[in-house]
Amino acid sequence: MKLSRTRRMDATIPTASMADIAFLLIIFFLVATVRDVDRTAVALPGSVVREESREGAACVVVAKEDGRIVYKFSDGKRTALEVGGVNDIYLEASRIAHADSARQFVIKADADVRYFLVDQVLDTLREAGAREVLLLTRTKDERKGR
């Protein structure tokens, strides 16, 4: 009995589903990526106790840039934009507090900024109707670079 020879097939990688895999990876990274609403570099003041804010908290930034005080505001969904001062913060915060009274507000203040400016922002947020205001800090054991 004569055996027929089998043809050897070349080793190939199927590429038909590569586009599907790439699309799934893009979706995964879009969903898994944490979006930061503010990337302003500030030297945060230290504290012993630290509490985490909820996702979607509105953010107010008080920073010193080039020798001047800069105020930024974010509603927790969009990137923080520079505003003119505490009056603009009041308008934005009152709009958010009116729509969602349980929304948290986070103040991210530079350690070099005078405290009376932070106190003005605190008073402004309270007048606007904010019920829960947190101050962003670093714990004492964290280094300044973080």
Short description:
The chain is of the alpha/beta class. It is 29% helix and 22% strand.
Keywords:
two-stranded parallel sheet; five-stranded mixed beta sheet; alpha/beta; 146 residues; 22% strand
Cα shape: elongated
CATH topology of the domain at 46-139: Nucleotidyltransferase, domain 5
The CATH class designation of the domain at 46-139 is: Alpha Beta
Coarse structural class: alpha/beta
Could you list the spans in which at least 5 consecutive residues all have pLDDT below 50?
none
Number of helices: 3
CATH architecture of the domain at 46-139: 2-Layer Sandwich
Identify the strand order in the major beta sheet.
4-3-2-5-6
Tell me what portion of residues adopts beta-strand conformation: 15-25%
Radius of gyration: 26 Å
Distance between the termini: 78 Å
Mean pLDDT reading: 84
What does this 3D model show about the protein?
The chain has 146 residues and is an alpha/beta fold. The chain has a domain at 46-139: 2-Layer Sandwich (Nucleotidyltransferase, domain 5). The chain contains 3 helices and 7 strands. The chain has a 5-stranded mixed beta sheet, covered by helices on one side. A two-stranded parallel sheet has the order 1-7. Helix 2 packs parallel to helix 3. The radius of gyration is 26 Å and the shape is elongated. It starts with 17 loop residues before the first helix and ends in a 7-residue tail after the last strand. The mean pLDDT is 84.
